[in-house]
Amino acid sequence: MPINILSLPVKDLQYALDCMDLDDLLAFSLCSKRAKNLVKSSKVEVEKIYAEVDENRINLKISTSQLQKWIWYGKRIKFVLCEDFSIKFKRVDGFQKWENTEFTFNHLIAHFLSLSNTSMIRKLKIKNGNSIAYLDTVKQLIPKCQFLKISEECSREFTKIAFLKLSSIGEIVEIDNNPLDNENYISKLLSLNLKSVIFNDFVNPFKLTLDDLLGLNIARLTIASINITERELNRFLKLWMKSSHGFYRPEHISLLIRNGINRAEVLRGIKYQIVDNKHLLKRADGKELLIDIGLRYVIFKFRQ
Amino acid sequence: MSSTEQGTSSAAPAEPTTAPESAAAPEVPESFYYVHGKDKVVHKVSAGALQHSALIHGMISNLGYTEEQAKANPFPFENIDGDILQMVVDWCNQHKGKPTPPEDTNLPKQKEKLFDLVLAVNYLEIKELLTYCCKQVAMMVKGKSPEEIREIWMIPTDAEDEAAEKEAKKRAGKEAAGETAAAAGDAK
């Protein structure tokens, strides 16, 4: 015979909830809005939500903690959206498949975001994808995230398509595999209107040209590593000084240069001031560029 | 286990049999008190066992009853079913003067009894037993899906909650209208 738990005195109800395991508590929170609010007011915190695309599955990992006797215990709760769109919930004794459940994956994501008082998933990792069509499903399910990472396990072709399809959903986008077999293709990626992009591939360096830098439309760009000549960097700085393009969106460019860099060659013929061991360029329109050059890196910080 | 006598009224309790003494019997003669629930069955419980209940302990301290007075005036708990009070009394006797273990396997397995027990224990302010009961309540849904939890714990869906809220508002509106009409009638 069932019992009407919501009719228990508030204190007892809260105590019963405090006795529950985190995964049971999260399952309870899905029962109704009232249940969700009870969990919200209990000694539980839903901190961060991570998603991981592994082939045609999405793993949803929820970082939670529970206060028990003055100590916060952390636990990572896991849901899996399977290929057939059924949902599996990881319990102590294995995965529990929710058959004919009323809950969709969208519903779960919205529910846990609401419990965590955040507006978007912390990190979406494309771990190992092989279906390009599935990327549309991913985008539909996760329309926004703070950090999008396309892992090195993805093929070059898949990485390129995943970047083009999904980069707009991440505030910061990182790819760990140089997807470019064609030198000109990087211009297309760099011209996308994005907030922050990190290209990481130390084995296969990217190739960057003056035109790529001039056409850059990403606010914060980090590339590790690249091949670029001092001459091209020098020409870029001279063009920037002459204000040949009035509006330049980038705020920060950080480049790790594969074969090292000669500072004098980069700054040849350019007027600058030394500020904190960095080089400050001032343009006639008042805009400034602070340059930090090391043996293998160059960092440009643009000030409006 | 304590013994009880059926059908005894609270005003004149018949001779209830004594609750079993623990192995380590106190040297000083123990005082006893009497309680009854909805079924009027009187339970004789030692002061030591009753110490678990903050409510009864407070009543004893404040009243300063002699044993004779206590016998003539059992504490009435009309809001607690007889069998539930029996469980509480048994638990208090079993745990008299003993440290409470981290788990208690003697709690009722029937869910409806457990629910009533929680309410009774909450009323009687027996903290340790309440802890066990709440744990037991939590265990009822261990490993269950939201739909199963909803069924076991009778949790209404959002649609049902909304419908109930609408109904309550409607009723409140009708009652308010009725009161206004009555007040207007009185004024005439």
Describe the structure.
The complex is a heterodimer of chains A (304) and B (188). Chain A is α/β, with parallel strands linked by helices. Chain A has helices at residues 10-18, 22-29, 33-40, 105-116, 132-141, 156-166, 185-190, 210-214, 230-241, 263-266; strands at 44-54, 57-68, 71-81, 87-91, 94-98, 121-128, 145-150, 170-175, 194-200, 206-207, 218-227, 252-257, 273-275, 278-282, 288-293, 297-303. Chain A is elongated. The mean pLDDT of chain A is 89. In chain B, 52% of the residues lie in helices and 7% in strands. In chain B, a hairpin with a 5-residue loop joins strand 2 (32-36) and strand 3 (42-46). In chain B, helix 4 (82-94) packs across helix 5 and helix 5 (111-124) runs antiparallel to helix 6. The longest helix of chain B has 30 residues, at 158-187. Residues 1-22 of chain B have low confidence and may be disordered. Classes of the chains: A alpha/beta (304), B alpha+beta (188). The interface between A and B is medium-sized, with 35 and 33 residues. Chain B: It comes from Caenorhabditis nigoni. Chain B: Residues 165-177 have a biased composition (Basic and acidic residues). Chain B: Residues 1-25, 160-188 are annotated as: Disordered. Chain B: Keywords: Ubl conjugation pathway.
What is the number of E strands of chain B? 4
Shape field of chain B: flat
Number of beta-strand segments of chain A: 16
Largest interface: A-B, 35 and 33 residues
The CATH class of chain B turns out to be Alpha Beta
Oligomer: heterodimer
The amount of helix of chain A comes to 25-40%
Radius of gyration of chain B over all CA atoms, rounded: 22 Å
Q: Quickly count the domains of chain B.
A: 1
Q: What value does the Rg of chain A take, in angstroms?
A: 25 Å
Global mean pLDDT of chain B: 78
The whole-number mean of residue pLDDT values of chain A reads: 89
Provide the succession of SSEs of chain A.
Answer: HHHEEEEEHEHEHEHEEHEHEHEEEE
Q: Please count the helical segments of chain A.
A: 10
Give the structural class of chain B: alpha+beta
Q: Give the N-to-C terminal Cα separation of chain B.
A: 66 Å
Structural class of chain A: alpha/beta
Q: In the CATH scheme, what's the topology name of chain B? A: Potassium Channel Kv1.1, Chain A
First and last CA, distance of chain A = 69 Å
Strand content of chain B: 5-15%
